[in-house]
Amino acid sequence: MLRLAVPNKGSLSDPAITLLKEAGYRTRRSGRELVLVDADNDVELFFLRPRDIAVYVGQGTVHAGITGRDLLLDSGVQALEHLPLGFARSTFRLAAPAGTMSSLADVAGKRVATSYDVLVRGYLEAQGVQATTVHLDGAVESSVHLGVADLIADVVETGTTLRAAGLEVFGEPLLVSEAVLVTTEQFQHEPALATLVRRLEGVLRARSYVLVDYDVPMNLLDQASALTPGIESPTVSPLQNPDWVAVRAMVPRKDMNRVMDELYALGARAILVSSLLACRL
Ligand SMILES: Nc1ncnc2c1ncn2[C@@H]1O[C@H](COP(=O)(O)OP(=O)(O)OP(=O)(O)O)[C@@H](O)[C@H]1O
Ligand SMILES: O=P(O)(O)OC[C@H]1O[C@H](OP(=O)(O)OP(=O)(O)O)[C@H](O)[C@@H]1O
Ligand SMILES: [Mg+2]
């Protein structure tokens, strides 16, 4: 039975559980369930703190787990990123009171507040900057105002929290993070893991595409097909009116509106877009 660690709290938890659910796995009924056996799918889910998941994976007590790239690096565990999952996207950045710091050189001799000490110390060391880290569990943005640090290193998504604290990012991002499925060399070729990966990929691909249907005059079919080439080739079906055909193709979700505009301008009509639940391409 595949043993999988799933985040039980924080930004990773809900999207991870939704992804597993869409991939056909049983998920927990209450927020208190710690372990769940999904006998139909031959998987045992362990709901653990996101920060601890890399540790369990590294120890080999679970075959795989879902965590953040930043948390994995901060754990220092030698686990493998098996599949990027596309949610909990963030950057990890240095920030200081607006207008006070502009480059890494300004960090020398200063106090850096962070929840990611290993990651930050590793980065500063690699860059040859000597500074001290102050470990905080969260709400790191308040530390400068409260006088325990001169700058912070933290997760930034929209930047709203930083702005509210009067802080500004500077320098290059330390890293770009997202949720990842992690495993170890020992388990990376497990057939049960390959099944999980195939199913998760099916959902992730389905999320990144939409299905577009439209009718188009026969004489414009080639131009319309060029706008919607699909994966192999668009499906073309006859209509009762011999001058028109119906076309169906997958289109990247991000291109959906542009493609609809261009199809309509070309002369296509009855353009319908639907979401996909899962797919194998
Ligand atoms: N605002 C955010 N937007 C996107 N990703 C985020 C955000 N905050 C944290 N993350 C990501 O979530 C993971 C952090 O997990 P963690 O459980 O600490 O989340 P959290 O939302 O900060 O939870 P907590 O409330 O326990 O602090 C990291 O991979 C981090 O990059
Ligand atoms: O750039 P933003 O969109 O504002 O998001 C980034 C903030 O979100 C997370 O905080 P969280 O809410 O988890 O609080 P925490 O600091 O207690 O972890 C993270 O630690 C940042 O503080
Ligand atoms: Mg947090």
Automatic annotation (TrEMBL):
Protein name, per record: ATP phosphoribosyltransferase
UniProt-listed Pfam families: HisG, HisG_C
| A GO molecular-function annotation | ATP binding
Give the UniProt keywords, A-Z. Answer: Amino-acid biosynthesis, ATP-binding, Cytoplasm, Glycosyltransferase, Histidine biosynthesis, Magnesium, Metal-binding, Nucleotide-binding, Transferase
Q: List the taxonomic lineage.
A: Bacteria, Bacillati, Actinomycetota, Actinomycetes, Actinomycetales
What is the regulation of this protein's activity? Feedback inhibited by histidine.
What EC class does the entry list? transferase
Organism of origin is Actinomyces weissii
The principal location of this protein is: cytoplasm
Q: What is its EC number?
A: 2.4.2.17
Q: Which SUPFAM superfamilies match?
A: GlnB-like (SSF54913), Periplasmic binding protein-like II (SSF53850)
Keyword set includes Magnesium = yes
**Reactions listed under catalytic activity:** 1-(5-phospho-beta-D-ribosyl)-ATP + diphosphate = 5-phospho-alpha-D-ribose 1-diphosphate + ATP
Task: Enumerate the spans annotated as Histidine biosynthesis HisG C-terminal domain.
Answer: 206-276
Cofactors (names): Mg(2+)
Look up the record and report any one GO term of the cellular component aspect: cytoplasm
Q: Which GO terms describe its biological process?
A: L-histidine biosynthetic process
Would you say which domain of life the source belongs to?
Answer: Bacteria
Q: Which residues form the ATP phosphoribosyltransferase catalytic domain?
A: 49-201
- Which pathway? Amino-acid biosynthesis; L-histidine biosynthesis; L-histidine from 5-phospho-alpha-D-ribose 1-diphosphate: step 1/9
| Family named by the database record | Belongs to the ATP phosphoribosyltransferase family. Long subfamily.
Compartments in which it is found: Cytoplasm
Function summary: Catalyzes the condensation of ATP and 5-phosphoribose 1-diphosphate to form N'-(5'-phosphoribosyl)-ATP (PR-ATP). Has a crucial role in the pathway because the rate of histidine biosynthesis seems to be controlled primarily by regulation of HisG enzymatic activity.
